[in-house]
Amino acid sequence: MKIEADSIDITEHPHDDKPRPYLCTVCDKRFTRKDSLNVHKRIHSGEKPFVCTVCDKRFILRGSLKVHKLTHSREKLFVCAVCNKWFSDKRSLTVHRKLHTPTGEMYSCTQCEKRFSTEQYLRSHMYVHSRKYKCTECGKSFTSNHNLTVHKRSHSGEKPFECSDCGKRFTRAGDLVKHSRIHSREKPYKCHMCYKAFSQSGDLNTHMRVHTGDKPYKCSLCNKSFSQSSSLQSHKRHVHSNRRPYDCRYCGKLFKTHSHLKRHVPTHTGAKQHSCRHCSDRFTSHYKLKRHLLKSHNEGTWLICHICQKTFSRKDDLKTHVRRHEGVKPYVCSECSKCFYTAGELKSHLLSHSEFRQFYCSLCDKCFKCKASVKRHFKGCSGVATFSLLVKSETEIKIR
């Protein structure tokens, strides 16, 4: 459903014909009672008189504070029949259910095409397009003078709220409250299922997906789903992106992440920065140290495949192994649509679509596409064979 921006006359109430003598001088909305008008004015002034005693969050309405307090308790009364997600109030559950019915009625703003699950949310959003409270710096509009004042600090750099413990400053009081929990270690938001506690409500909401299995962030390229937006973005960079901004200063090899480059460098330097606390052995990577502790000193926990009981020291290795049991191949070749279990298998396959041969035999100068092929070739060559890696340029080959 679409509601035209210019058709929203908030002075009209088609469902009744009660007299509304109390007028808001800011937005022209009318009310039947003076106390209703006074409550409404808080939207424009930014006044929030009702404060949560647990986390100091403020609210315009007493009812909103009452609903909010349930986030600090273990009481979750309403459950979604589709995904088993729990809610403190029936209204939140009703709004959530619309996520499972994409064909259901949605309300679209004709100014920016943003969509909302309820007409009330759309009407609240329409204030964004009004010119009552508009920033003269960037043109952004706000529903209240208070919100505009807070926004202006992003241009002026003003940060009036200072942490008494470390001196860090913030533009909003709420941000200071959240930050102060780092020092106090206060965690007011508790999971009602496992009793784990969090300092921010958003962290609790993300955690609840561990119990519900909810993964709302779906990759448009391979349909893999994630519980967090950051996990989806990381997945896209690591799996589907061609960009490799980190290069090794020793061999020029390119990497998608700084951590991958950091793990690679010791293969050139031979640096063994990870030492065992039980013996004198040292290792080039944390993974090798962890495996050593498991095998030699029985320290740590082996990860066990629930299908064949094979053990692993790394979570990623176990996940890849389980994929082979389940037949899941998330890595897709953009040239022929062939699928693979790992990024390494896809990378090797991509060479079949390229004529570039980066490895050569130092005895006969025959070239090969991969290291394994040149190693096999050496067995047929006489003498002591060594192989070299040709310097490759970005224009010669592009590993997807």
Summarize the structure.
The chain has 400 residues and is α+β, with helices and mostly antiparallel strands. The longest helix is centred in the N-terminal third of the chain and has 12 residues, at 34-45.
CATH superfamily of the domain at 2-132: Classic Zinc Finger
Which stretches of 5+ consecutive residues score pLDDT under 50?
1-15, 383-400
The level 1 CATH classification of the domain at 2-132 is Alpha Beta
Q: Given the structure, what is the number of helices?
A: 14
What separation lies between the terminal Cα atoms? 42 Å
Architecture per CATH nomenclature, i.e. the level-2 architecture of the domain at 2-132: 2-Layer Sandwich
Architecture blueprint of SSEs:
Blueprint: E1 2-3, E2 22-23, E3 30-31, H1 34-45, E4 50-51, E5 58-59, H2 62-69, E6 78-79, E7 86-87, H3 90-97, E8 107-109, E9 115-116, H4 119-126, E10 133-134, E11 141-142, H5 145-156, E12 161-162, E13 169-170, H6 173-184, E14 189-190, E15 197-198, H7 201-212, E16 217-218, E17 225-226, H8 229-240, E18 246-247, E19 254-255, H9 258-264, H10 266-269, E20 274-275, E21 282-283, H11 286-297, E22 303-304, E23 311-312, H12 315-326, E24 331-332, E25 339-340, H13 343-350, E26 359-361, E27 367-368, H14 371-378, E28 387-389
Parallel strand pairs: 1-8
Antiparallel strand pairs: 2-3, 4-5, 6-7, 8-9, 10-11, 12-13, 14-15, 16-17, 18-19, 20-21, 22-23, 24-25, 26-27, 26-28
